Amino acid sequence: MLYNTLRVKQNGQYLAATPNPDRPDRFILIFCDRSEALSYLNAHAAGLEDRFTIETVQQTQIQGILERWGFTGIGLVRDPRLPEIEFATCLTSLHPEQ
């Protein structure tokens, strides 16, 4: 399965969320569809879209990204407009598409 991530063009950092401001846990945001990533940018980073690039990654690459960049887990964006994000420490613990 393919997923999409958002990366900052300037430094290559992945866009991440910190769901609990009292903890340093960071979760890489992933999207099931490229259009969802674009919608997320339009809703939450209007005017800054040109600073990001969408990177398509295979499911098998995600664990390596988590380890290499020191992420706690992933944040699967279910609804990019709200946003509704499901956080997990690995892909297999996420619920199937709802």
Please tag this protein with its features:
98 residues, single chain, alpha+beta, 2 helices, 6 strands
Give a short summary of the structure:
This protein is of the alpha+beta class and 98 residues long. It is built from two helices and six strands; from the N terminus they run βββαβαββ.
What can you see in these coordinates?
With 98 residues, the chain is an alpha+beta fold. Helix content is 22%, strand content 34%. It contains two helices and six strands. Strands 1, 2, 3, 4, 5 and 6 form a six-stranded mixed beta sheet that branches. A hairpin with a 4-residue loop joins strand 5 (73-79) and strand 6. The protein starts with a strand and ends in a 10-residue tail after the last strand. The mean pLDDT is 92.
Strand content: 25-35%
Sheet with most strands: 6 strands, mixed
User: What would the average pLDDT be, to the nearest integer?
Assistant: 92
Order of helices and strands: EEEHEHEE
Helix amount, in percent?
10-25%
DSSP E strands, number:
6
Q: State the low-pLDDT regions, or none.
A: none
Provide the gyration radius in Å: 13 Å
Measured distance between first and last alpha carbons? 16 Å
The general outline is globular
Output the number of helix runs: 2
What structural class should be given to the helix and strand makeup?
A: alpha+beta
Helix-strand layout with pairing:
Blueprint lengths: L1 E7 L7 E2 L9 E5 L2 H11 L7 E7 H11 L3 E7 L4 E5 L10
Parallel strand pairs: 3-5
Antiparallel strand pairs: 1-3, 1-4, 2-3, 5-6
